[in-house]
Design goal:
Blueprint: H1 3-16, H2 24-33, H3 47-67, H4 77-88, H5 102-117, H6 121-137, H7 146-157, H8 159-167, H9 176-181, H10 190-202, H11 207-218, H12 220-225, H13 229-237, H14 244-259
Helix pairs in contact: 1-2, 3-4, 4-5, 5-6, 5-10, 7-8, 7-11, 11-14
Length: 266
């Protein structure tokens, strides 16, 4: 069996028989042996040079913010990342005292979660920057549609639960920004976020819908006992985190159930 067939066949086969992720390490090792990976940089020999350029660019942008006294040693690291991103995007405000835009709040939430996953500050900035740029470009038109998709799939899974949300006028007040714009950053622990964001990066933001649906299904008894939109929303913004790994696993199962094997489906 060739390496290409190993790369594609094993993962799909094991997922179909219920053993998802069994061959992930093996498949990753095969992929990393390729001269071309299909992502930047395409050649192994370019990696060190590209990382050097990225470190230099990081240092240059950081230095620029220090020179214009936009940041100081007291500036929180995630805010440093935000101002670097804004400067590189040509959207740096005239003063750090200017109120944050909604898109800034999204960036900060993702950067804060990314800090827990990535130790190196240069890597953390670049990964956060690229992740946010993907949300703002590739998924720009899709993200606004996710609340409707959430309602659709929740109705398929538990119409009674959806009816309860509608009776409480809670459907329009659910934490969609936390779920979909921030991709659950600040809602679920980083160990769970990694599994969700892996799917988002690989090409499907619809996984976010199924995580939201599974949260409702997992805490159905609690949600059904709440009788106001405010109480329901407040609870869903702060769900118990000890169930998060199970929620994500079940959400991935739902994703496969409704979308087949959605390798790159948005």
């Amino acid at each position: 069996m060739t390496e290409d067939s190993q790369r594609n066949f094993r993962s799909v086969y094991y997922e179909k028989v219920g053993f998802r992720g069994v061959e992930e390490k093996k498949s990753l090792e095969i992929l990393l042996k390729d001269d071309r990976l299909g992502i930047l940089p395409p050649h192994h020999e370019s990696h060190a040079q590209v990382m050097m350029y990225r470190k230099e660019q990081y240092s240059d942008v950081l230095h620029a913010l220090e020179v214009i006294r936009f940041i100081s040693d007291a500036t929180p690291q995630i805010e440093v990342y935000l101002y670097m991103h804004r400067l590189e995007s040509g959207k740096l405000p005239r003063s750090p005292s200017f109120p944050l835009e909604p898109e800034d709040e999204v960036f900060l939430a993702i950067a804060k979660a990314m800090e827990e996953m990535v130790e190196d500050s240069v890597d953390c900035y670049w990964i956060t920057r690229c992740f946010v740029n993907q949300l703002n470009s590739k998924y720009r038109d899709t993200l606004p549609l996710l609340p409707k998709a959430f309602e659709q799939y929740l109705n398929l899974e538990d119409s009674r639960l959806l009816s309860h949300l509608k009776a409480c006028c809670a459907v329009s007040t659910l934490p969609y920004e936390l779920w979909f714009k921030k991709c659950f950053a600040g809602c679920l622990p980083e160990s769970s976020l990694q599994r969700i964001w892996d799917k988002v990066v690989s090409g499907s933001c619809k996984i976010l819908v199924f995580v939201a649906v599974e949260i409702l299904l997992t805490f159905k008894i609690k949600v059904m006992a709440l009788n106001s939109a405010e109480k329901i929303t407040k609870f869903l913004e702060n769900v118990p985190q000890d169930s998060s790994d199970a929620i994500v696993s079940k959400a991935i199962d739902l994703w496969h159930k409704h979308c087949g094997t959605p390798v790159h489906s948005a």
